[in-house]
Amino acid sequence: MASHVTDHHHQNTNELTPSVVILPNYTLVNPNLVPVRYVVNPAAIAQLEVNRSINLQQLMKDEGLVPSAEEERKRNDVIRKLKEIVFKWIKSVASLRRLPQNNIRAASATILTYGSYGLGVYNAESDIDALCVGPWFATLTEDFFIGLHNMLANRVEVSDIHCVKDAKVPLMRFKFEGISIDLPYAQLQVTTVPENVDILNPLFLHGIDETSWKSLSGVRANNSILQLVPNAKIFQELLRCVKHWAKRRGVYGNLFGFFGGVHLAVLAAFVCQSNPNVSLAGLVTIFFKTFALWPWPTPIILQQGMMVPPRHHETRSLMPIQLPSSPHEYCHSNVTTSTFMKIIQEFRRGYRLTQDLFKFDWRNLFEPYPYSKNYQQFLKLCLSASNQDDLGDWIGWVKSRFPGLLQKLEEFHAFYDPNPAEYSDTTIQDPNVVFYWGIVPGLSNILFDLNSVQREFKKYLGTGSKGVKGKISLSVIPASQLPKNLQLVDNPHVHSSPTQMIPVYTNPVPYYTVGYLTPEHPGSGHMS
Ligand SMILES: Nc1ncnc2c1ncn2[C@@H]1O[C@H](COP(=O)(O)OP(=O)(O)OP(=O)(O)O)[C@@H](O)[C@H]1O
Ligand SMILES: [Mg+2]
Ligand SMILES: [Mg+2]
Fold first, then answer.
1. Which of 33, 225, 309, 334 lies 20 to 30 Å from 260, alpha-carbon distance?
2. Average pLDDT in the chain
3. Burial class (CB in 10 A: 0-12, 13-18, 19+), 2
């Protein structure tokens, strides 16, 4: 028992032992009622930060957020195979086009990774964002979406392949040996594309088309983030932590009006940039302090002096975050008044917890958001289809329309918290997924007319859906009718052990393309 107590003490309050310490003029009363004055001791504070950093790194490992050597190998292997495939593909396109022999010999194409994989901040469930870079003679519409598509579809490693053509950044999405891949295409005006082509080199950018330029933006953003941070390793650790925090607290998911990976990457880079010699624990603390106190909508700008105010809809964003290396653009965002409030509340909570020297415990920071405790009523969205394939397409389509629904809800005076996690209703026979969005008390006593929302949303879903088959129903339920696992997530006594209690983030839709769907910009907000 004694050792247990010591252990516990060690884990939770290891920062503060009476001999070290901390705040100027901080007076504690000891059990004998003798006031003890704690004094500033810089060495002790430094030690405290070191300990906190070690604890945090350990916690990230325990949570399985640091990829194992095995996972790393597997992903490297997938990239290598993709490179081989596109290389073969480009040779066959060159022959097909009857290029001169020396051109066929010189012809090449490659794969560049970006997104969380490119930044080195992925885990087992992350997708791989891979850009295919090809030469002048390989076109997007024919060679990429037909030729390469067919080559991929014929491989045993590939499943669930989809083309997403009518997006600002068109891409193919598929699984390769079970790992989700997003594959856009950029066409350069050269014959030979070196394996690690430097896309910042004007030589390669000369004369490229608009779509290719947009497709390159992810790689450009990654490159400049890594160039701008003073220490890539500590940036990666910080980003890993804040991503974990955002997922646990229900503020991760661009389609739900929260952060996408790119937004958090810029926020983390911003903190690293201005605090070059701070430890991981210190950076996490500064992260929360910075953004809890930030005078939004003042934009977050990584490259000072480069930003020119954007003219498009992004200007209206509530949380503008510059897209690195694109002076005219912010990262596309679907933040609404509701989700803005939730994010701010979570920043403040993080700020409060990381300031608290006495009850400090990293596990508090990453505690799952207690939906069933915080909201009495939920908007339940049930999506179903007659088979799994249709359901996949249907979820993808409906999710891509969520930004419009979120705006509609606010027009109907409902404030809500769209929990991005997906659940499944086992009482329904058809394959289904269910979302439960908290309805914010006080602001919306269900004065809004659910029927009108339902009607409008269905109309909006029908526009441009190209025959995707599925059903959707919206209803309002009390917290007591939430599925048991959603209730258990909130129970502090169980969250640390059974992992099946933690909501899963499936990624069946091109998150990436959503901000870019051309026909109707989600940012423009009108559903009908
Ligand atoms: N809203 C956006 N605005 C601008 N660029 C975006 C946006 N969403 C995605 N991208 C680009 O696409 C890349 C991959 O996006 P993705 O959604 O896969 O996020 P990620 O950072 O890889 O995180 P995750 O681990 O969740 O996959 C981003 O790094 C970014 O360059
Ligand atoms: Mg990704
Ligand atoms: Mg992606």
1. 309
2. 83
3. exposed
